[in-house]
Amino acid sequence: xxxxxxxxxxxxxxxxxxxxxxxxxxxxxxxxxxxxxxxxxxxxxxxxxxxxxxxxxxxxxxxxxxxxxxxxxxxxxxxxxxxxxxxxxxxxxxxxxxxxxxxxxxxxxxxxxxxxxxxxxxxxxxxxxxxxxxxxxxxxxxxxxxxxxxxxxxxxxxxxxxxxxxxxxxxxxxxxxxxxxxxxxxxxxxxxxxxxxxxxxxxxxxxxxxxxxxxxxxxxxxxxxxxxxxxxxxxxxxxxxxxxxxxxxxxxxxxxxxxxxxxxxxxxxxxxxxxxxxxxxxxxxxxxxxxxxxxxxxxxxxxxxxxxxxxxxxxxxxxxxxxxxxxxxxxxxxxx
Amino acid sequence: xxxxxxxxxxxxxxxxxxxxxxxxxxxxxxxxxxxxxxxxxxxxxxxxxxxxxxxxxxxxxxxxxxxxxxxxxxxxxxxxxxxxxxxxxxxxxxxxxxxxxxxxxxxxxxxxxxxxxxxxxxxxxxxxxxxxxxxxxxxxxxxxxxxxxxxxxxxxxxxxxxxxxxxxxxxxxxxxxxxxxxxxxxxxxxxxxxxxxxxxxxxxxxxxxxxxxxxxxxxxxxxxxxxxxxxxxxxxxxxxxxxxxxxxxxxxxxxxxxxxxxxxxxxxxxxxxxxxxxxxxxxxxxxxxxxxxxxxxxxxxxxxxxxxxxxxxxxxxxxxxxxxxxxxxxxxxxxx
DNA sequence: CACACGGATTTGAACGTTCAAATGATTCTG
DNA sequence: CAGAATCATTTGAACGTTCAAATCCGTGTG
Lengths: 336, 336
Description:
Two copies of one chain form a homodimer.
Chain A: H1 3-10, H2 14-22, H3 29-42, H4 48-55, E1 60-64, H5 73-86, E2 93-97, H6 107-114, E3 120-124, H7 132-138, E4 143-146, E5 158-161, H8 163-176, E6 182-186, H9 192-207, E7 215-217, H10 222-236, E8 240-244, H11 247-259, E9 268-274, H12 277-281, E10 285-288, H13 291-306, E11 316-318, E12 321-323
Parallel strand pairs in A: 1-2, 1-3, 3-4, 4-5, 5-11, 6-7, 6-8, 8-9, 9-10
Antiparallel strand pairs in A: 10-12
Helix pairs in contact in A: 1-2, 1-3, 5-13, 8-9, 10-11
The first copy, chain A, binds a DNA duplex (30 and 30 nucleotides) through helix 2 and helix 4.
């Protein structure tokens, strides 16, 4: 089904059909309706390759998939879904690609742009020393990152979750639920994300005058968390609570708690971070990242960049949303 | 960088450049080398939109993303990565799309084909009554499924994991490790996948003459598994083992075991299914699906269909691979 | 030495779309 | 009522590629 077939059916020229879709105000109302009828009747949809060729724009955004399947899988994979949902709103589609292990790091990026398969990228799993932002900027290829850009203070095309606000909300929630001893399990000091999340907890427990606020740290992982959870559980005691920097850590703590015969909620308040499926299935209260809004923001940014607009004046932080689960219900059915 | 610029640089016509890439045997050796030099020097890569337009083929495969983020997330999301890795080998790329909740079920499929964004689909999360296979076949749009096709016995364009072989390997492994009482936790009878997995365990434990083989069933979910795990643990007793139909179920059993103070391995042998990240992080022995091979097979099938080849004579089953973890080490450091 | 033959290379056309310019139809103005 | 102005519509050209047909050029043959 091509534009010419529609034109023939509606007894107009191909350009009138084109105008009907792109500049309806240029077409006389009567003709407009008639053409629209033909379009609907024939189910015409313009061919993407033709438009891409004509416009010299792919209308697509590249997305490197290596990260999915890594430790941060819980976040990046739902984020990809959020991007796919948001894409139609920005008149674009996604092209995921995986740079094979054997090939140069950035080959996937250069190939997809050079072949005009994509005209911009969404980066995930950005980290200090990440070569991608500078590499792309040097070639003036538009990009936006989910996650802060550590290399370059001046970079503004990024969106991230407000970890501080998240753990603050977690601490608020625990106090509200009646927990009086609130610990924190995070990652070793030095990672900006981790420090941010720790600080939200620290400031907020202080604000509420919580007395017992032990903390511990370990690498991201369930076994790692279980290993260091002991002293933390001792410190907050039965009936205390722990805020974790990630859902994996929370699950590790859960295992440690179960091993001592503590049950989630009454014996231990527990809050994770990221809104992973597993946390939900375990009944752990968690901080859900607003991935739909973040995805929308990312696509809006690259869309504007492609239209030649100036980059935003700063990166964007999005507050996570606390989803209460059984793990923070202190009195399942009863009065305080 | 277009073919014309390369042609000018190499002092030949555009068609010679085209032939250099597509039919090198038509080009005189001397010219060939000279043109190749220009191509390398200028870093030319043919434009995908042009080729798509000319060939009337997108060279892309559609992939519906709704399923990712669902309960089967653990499998579909790594499968997408496997597809992305395999895609370059089949000279194609992926176009993931999400049918928004508000819109008709199959709109994503019809739009992407009509716009020539994709020319085939890989289906996941197929289920009895799935409208997609017939809908696509009626329109003679090539497709292949990861998961059996329940509607249509005659369908052969699918690949799936051999659940029976998987749980059989699991039972073998447990016997080999010295476990003498081996139970099974699966899904309610009726789901073909679940029944298949149950049977592998049943047949193999019988073969080894295992005496104590209790079983139980519940819906897919961690809490659900924990809820029904009690009697099963009682039946196999301390030092027994349990094979599960999925990793989520295994984690549910793990929680029940931890609550009784049992430790994985010595007190309870535990095996999950699917090779999820979480199972790995929990140290649970699991059956990893060969997603890379399955992805490769799927893309090969649609590629052949697009070339007009006849569909395969039957669907393909792939045996999962058992990855041993601490959860099936009966004697951490010692003799039997 | 004219001529057919073969391989190497070039030119024309087309894929479906949209921009720019040209044409056609209508109304307004003097 | 001729001519200008405005609006609606059509035609030509181009995006980069590849297929098909045409041209070129050196060789061997009658």
